[in-house]
Design brief:
By secondary structure, this protein is of the alpha+beta class. The chain is 51% helix and 11% strand. The chain has a four-stranded antiparallel beta sheet with strand order 1-2-3-4.
Length: 209
């Protein structure tokens, strides 16, 4: 009796790529922390707070026209002002708006921290600097809005003191280190995006050509 020969059909298995890409993870060590500029935000926040208190103490917490010191005539003046509103003193005359700005500041700061931590694995130093600058700007003024009240520290609101006159006649809005960090961070981000888009377009054109 002939033996039946059974032919086993191979079971189809899911094909896997030869080299499977795994998402990189950020390792929390001193080297990565240094090159990701995680130290930059705390440093800028300290500089922001120290300079604010130095100016406040120098002027004995007295805000007004007399609270100014000319550093470079017709260009740079240290002028102490307290801002209970947002940028350019918007909402300063509406007391309850300060609580809105406090909430916005802390929510923005939390959002920056969240996305920065997610982005760390990209190891993109330029974007890390942008995150550091924006976080320093948001937190620096959030601290002022939240904790600086007249009964507590003797003054109320965000401390502004950097005053520049441009072109000899235009007085730019008085600002502080936190404001400068935020503006530089946003401008830096816009420039990075534009430049990278241009370079990417040139690369695609070169490949297609």
């Amino acid at each position: 009796m002939e033996e039946e020969i059974k032919v086993e059909t191979p079971v189809e298995t899911e094909k896997k790529p030869l080299f499977e890409k795994k998402e990189a993870k950020f390792e929390w060590n001193l080297k990565n922390i240094f090159f990701s500029f995680l130290w930059l935000a705390p440093l800028l926040i300290i500089i922001d707070q120290v300079t604010k208190w130095a100016v406040v103490n120098a002027f004995n917490k007295q805000a007004g026209p007399e609270s100014s010191f000319v550093v470079i005539p017709n260009f740079f003046t240290i002028k102490l002002q307290y801002n209970t509103g947002s940028s350019f003193s918007l909402g300063a005359n509406i007391p309850w708006m300060r609580f809105v700005f406090i909430a916005i500041s802390w929510i923005a700061s939390a959002g920056i921290v969240f996305y920065w931590i997610k982005y760390l694995k990209k190891k993109d130093a330029l974007i890390d600097v942008v995150f550091a600058l924006c976080l320093a700007g948001a937190l620096g003024n959030a601290i002022d809005r939240t904790f600086y009240w007249e009964p507590v520290v003797g003054f109320s609101g965000v401390v502004d003191f950097l005053s520049f006159r441009l072109f000899g006649f235009y007085d730019f809005a008085v600002f502080n280190v936190a404001d400068a960090c935020l503006v530089v961070g946003v401008l830096m981000f816009v420039i990075i995006v534009i430049v990278r888009d241009i370079l990417e377009a040139k690369r695609k054109n070169a490949n297609n050509g």
